Every structure is written in structure tokens, then in C-alpha cells.
């Protein structure tokens, strides 16, 4: 996470490093003018200042106290390409206010108190590409209010009070690619609500009070690449819940209440690469649950109530690289499941009550033979049998994973499931038995001895030593948590400043970079969440 945060910070620094040349001529007080850009931010303005140069292409009026825009407010600014009115006190958008701004390409109206948008408010903005209306008081999208915006590619309506989406809400937005609708508590989404935006690629409806996936509303989204439905009240994933989204690559369903999931819930998602189902109420993974997603690379199933993973749950997912099953109630991991994870690079089973017996032996052998890393290995420990309580799974040699009375008939065949077993030992094979951060006496503890009673005596004498190591591990985890909290604090501070950075970027006559900043905000949110 830290490396991603650093990368994002460097990118933000690069974005704000562009400077405009100082302009000739005067400038209306209290604004500052540079070239064709005029800055009037944080000036305590209650109205649009007069005397703005007619050649102005970028006008920043954000963070003021403007509550009303008269019809002629921008009448002498025909060359304006970018206008920022965010963080003011506007309550409505009339039909005449933007009439003369025929060359406008991006418009920020976010963080106001807008309750009403006139049907023809954007009639002349045929070149508008980005429209930000988030964090207002809109209760609905007026029919026809956006229909003339045929060039619009990004629309942000998040954090409003919109409850219903009609099938006419997005009429005319034929080029729309990104739509933000998060933090609106929808009570009804009509069938075909997105039929007018067939070219949509990214749709965000997080925190939307959705009780189910509006399958018929999504039917026409054949070009969708990203769909986020996190933090809703979805309880069931029916068969082919995402029918018609054949190009979908990223699907987020985290923090819902999903307890039932059809084995065909993801039918048709052959190009899906990222699936997030964490923090739901799943209790089991059925055979073939992900059979319809052969391109899946990252799968998040952590923080559910999963007690059982069926043997072929991940069958036909040959490209799976990351699997997170941490913080569930899993006791064992079937041999057939292990065999299906041929290309896995990272597996997280931490926080599960693992039963370290013969049924977990295939997983333990696989950890030696495969190229995958066991994430959070310090927290991937045994709960039974009692002699292994608290012991790390990757430390105990495979031959010590036994069942009382021996293996069930024919069960020894499971030891042959490792798809990547090599004739020569890997680095992990040569080091996993005596990791540097555990007691070196573990080797003798699990030595091949015919006298099992002697082994038990030796084991009991070492438990005190192991408990100290566990306590030390707990202290290290607490220290890591403090460091992670500090990092999240830094990320939160950066998020608060992104809006200010947007001011600088747009002021430098680089309006297309606002989309980059929007993407940065989404990435920062993901880093902070993870």
C-alpha cells in the first residue's frame, strides 16, 4: 500500500508542477490573472465579479459565497472552456445562466446546495465533456436536463438525495463513459434506466441503499468495464445477475449483506479480472461458483462467514493470482481446491480456525512446492490439534499433519496434487522449516521419531518458549497497525487536498487532467480502504 501511495503522491506532484505564464493587462479585484486563466478562489465573493477579460478560457470561482447567478453572469466570456463554481452556496441552475458558454468543456458545480436544474440549463453546452454535480441537494434528475450534452464523457451525481432513476434520466448522453452515482439512497431504478448510455465504461453506485442488483436496469451496458456496488444492502446474487456485461473486468460487491449466491451468479463474465466480495455474509463456496469467470486474477472473499470451500469452487479459473480468504471460519482446505490453484501468487488464510490434520496436508505441501506466497503467515496458525495450537502452518513439516488413527483409506493420493512440484527444492523449501523469526528448535520438535511419547514431552517443554514468540508477534502486529493508521491519516490528508490540486491543474489550462485527479481520488480511496 505504501508504494502505491508514494506513486500517487509523485503523480500528483507532477500534475501540479505545470505553471502558466503571467498575463499582460489588468485583472478584476480580488482575482489573479495569468494568461487566459482567472483565479477568484477563496475571496469571499457573493457574486461573479465584473471586468473579467473576454479572452478568458479558465475561470475559477470556487470556495466563495456565491448564491445566485444572474442570466448575464458570463455573457462576455464566449471563449470560456473551463468554469469552477464548486463550494459556493448555489441553490439552482437556471436556463439562461450558461447560454453564452458554447465552448465550455468542463464545469464544476459540486459542493453547493443545488436543488433544481432547469430543463434547458445546458442546452448550449454541446462541447461539454466533464460535469461535476456531486454533493448537492438534488432529489431527482430533471427529465431532459442533460439531453443536449452529446459530448459528455464524465458525469458525477454522487452525494445527492436522488431516490429514483427513470429510463429518461440519461437520454442524449451517447458518449458518456464514466458515471458516479454513489451515496444516493435509491428506492427505485427503472428497467432500462441506463439504456441511453450504451457506451458507459465505468459505473459507481456505492452506498446506494440497493437491496438487489437491478439486472434489467443494467441490461444494455455491454461496454461496461468497471461496476462498483459496494456498501449497499444486497442480500442475494441471482443467476446471471450481470447478464449482458460481457466486457466487465472489475466488479466490486464488498460490504453488502450477501448470504446467498447462485453458482451461476457471474454467468457471462468471461473477461472479469477483479472481483471483490469481502465483508458479506457468505457461509460456503459452492462447486463451480467461479466457473463462468475464467479470466479472474484477483478474488477477495475475506471477512465473510465461510466455513467450507468446496473442492472445485475455483475450477476453471486458471489465471487466479491473488486469493484472499482471511477472517472467515475455514477449518480445512480440500485437496481438489489446492490442485486448482496452479498459477496463484498470493494466498491469505489468516484469521481462520485452521485444523492442522491430514486434510490440510495437501495445502502444507503445496506451500513448499508452488510459487505462491502465503500472505500474513504469522497470523495463519493452527487451532487444533492442541499440540499445534498457535503454531504457524508454514512452519510445521507436512508429515506432521496427521489424523487420529491414520489417513482415511486412499487419502494418501492427495499428496500428489501439487501442479508445480519440482525435482529440486525451491528457496521456500530450503528455508520454510526454520524461518529466522521462529524458534529453531521446531525442527527437533517435529523430527522423525518412532517414540511419539518422547516427542510430546519435548513439545510440552517448548510451549512456554513458543508462547513468548506469539506474544512478540502480537506486539509486532499492534505496532504495524499503528503504522497503518498513520499511513491512512496521511492518505486522508492528501484526499482533502485533491480538490485544491484540481484548482491548480485547471488553472494551468489543462482541463483534461481533472479526469486524472478524479481517478487519483478513487485510487487513494482504495489504498485507504485496503
TrEMBL record:
| Transmembrane stretches, start-end | none
Gene Ontology CC, one term: plasma membrane
Q: Supply the PROSITE patterns for this chain.
A: LRR
Q: Which InterPro entries match?
A: Cys-rich_flank_reg_C (IPR000483), Leu-rich_rpt (IPR001611), Leu-rich_rpt_typical-subtyp (IPR003591), LRR_dom_sf (IPR032675), LRR_TM_domain-containing (IPR050541), LRRNT (IPR000372)
Pfam families, per this entry? Answer: LRR_8, LRRNT
Compartments, record wording: Cell membrane
- Put simply, this protein is called LRRCT domain-containing protein
Amino acid at each position: 500500500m505504501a508504494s502505491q501511495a508514494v506513486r500517487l503522491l509523485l503523480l500528483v506532484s507532477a500534475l501540479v508542477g505545470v505553471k502558466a505564464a503571467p498575463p499582460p493587462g489588468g485583472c478584476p479585484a480580488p482575482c489573479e490573472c495569468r494568461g487566459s486563466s482567472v483565479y477568484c478562489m477563496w475571496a469571499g465573493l457573493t457574486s461573479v465579479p465584473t471586468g473579467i477579460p473576454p479572452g478568458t478560457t479558465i475561470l475559477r470561482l470556487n470556495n466563495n459565497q456565491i448564491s445566485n447567478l444572474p442570466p448575464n453572469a458570463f455573457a462576455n466570456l464566449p471563449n470560456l472552456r473551463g468554469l469552477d463554481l464548486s463550494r459556493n452556496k448555489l441553490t439552482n441552475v437556471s436556463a439562461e445562466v450558461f447560454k453564452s458558454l458554447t465552448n465550455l468543456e468542463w464545469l464544476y458545480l459540486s459542493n453547493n446546495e443545488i436543488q433544481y436544474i432547469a430543463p434547458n440549463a445546458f442546452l448550449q453546452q454541446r462541447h461539454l465533456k466533464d460535469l461535476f454535480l456531486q454533493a448537492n441537494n438534488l432529489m431527482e434528475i430533471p427529465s431532459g436536463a442533460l439531453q443536449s450534452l452529446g459530448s459528455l464523457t464524465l458525469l458525477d451525481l454522487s452525494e445527492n438525495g436522488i431516490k429514483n432513476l427513470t429510463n429518461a434520466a440519461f437520454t442524449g448522453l451517447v458518449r458518456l463513459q464514466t458515471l458516479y452515482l454513489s451515496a444516493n439512497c435509491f428506492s427505485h431504478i427503472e428497467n432500462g434506466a441506463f439504456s441511453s448510455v450504451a457506451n458507459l465504461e465505468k459505473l459507481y453506485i456505492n452506498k446506494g441503499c440497493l437491496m438487489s442488483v437491478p439486472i434489467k436496469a443494467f441490461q444494455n451496458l455491454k461496454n461496461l468495464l468497471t461496476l462498483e456496488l459496494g456498501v449497499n444492502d444486497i442480500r442475494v446474487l441471482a443467476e446471471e445477475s450481470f447478464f449482458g456485461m460481457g466486457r466487465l473486468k472489475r466488479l466490486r460487491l464488498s460490504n453488502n449483506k450477501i448470504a446467498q449466491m447462485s453458482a451461476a451468479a457471474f454467468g457471462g463474465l468471461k473477461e472479469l479480472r477483479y472481483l471483490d466480495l469481502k465483508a458479506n455474509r457468505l457461509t460456503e463456496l459452492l462447486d463451480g461458483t467461479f466457473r463462468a469467470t475464467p479470466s479472474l486474477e484477483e478474488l477477495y472473499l475475506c471477512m465473510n462467514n465461510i466455513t467450507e470451500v468446496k473442492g472445485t469452487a475455483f475450477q476453471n479459473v486458471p489465471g487466479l493470482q491473488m486469493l484472499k480468504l482471511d477472517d472467515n471460519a475455514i477449518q480445512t482446505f480440500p485437496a481438489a481446491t489446492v490442485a486448482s490453484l496452479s498459477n496463484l501468487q498470493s494466498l491469505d488464510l489468516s484469521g481462520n480456525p485452521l485444523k492442522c490434520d491430514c486434510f490440510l496436508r495437501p495445502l502444507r505441501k503445496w506451500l513448499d512446492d508452488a510459487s505462491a506466497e502465503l500472505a500474513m503467515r504469522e497470523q495463519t496458525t493452527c487451532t487444533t490439534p492442541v499440540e499445534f495450537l498457535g503454531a504457524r502452518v508454514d512452519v510445521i513439516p507436512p508429515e506432521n499433519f496427521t489424523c487420529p488413527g491414520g489417513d482415511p483409506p486412499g487419502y494418501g493420493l492427495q499428496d500428489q496434487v501439487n501442479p508445480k512440484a519440482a525435482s529440486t527444492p525451491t528457496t521456500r523449501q530450503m528455508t520454510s522449516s526454520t524461518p529466522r523469526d521462529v524458534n529453531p528448535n521446531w525442527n527437533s520438535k517435529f523430527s522423525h521419531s518412532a517414540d511419539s511419547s518422547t516427542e510430546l514431552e519435548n513439545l510440552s517443554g517448548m510451549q512456554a518458549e513458543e508462547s513468548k514468540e506469539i506474544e512478540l508477534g502480537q506486539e509486532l502486529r499492534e505496532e504495524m497497525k499503528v503504522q497503518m493508521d498513520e499511513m491512512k491519516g496521511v492518505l486522508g490528508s492528501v484526499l482533502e487536498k485533491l480538490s485544491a490540486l484540481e484548482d491548480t491543474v485547471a488553472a494551468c489550462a489543462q482541463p483534461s487532467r481533472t479526469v486524472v485527479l478524479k481517478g487519483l481520488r478513487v485510487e487513494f480511496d482504495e489504498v485507504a480502504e485496503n
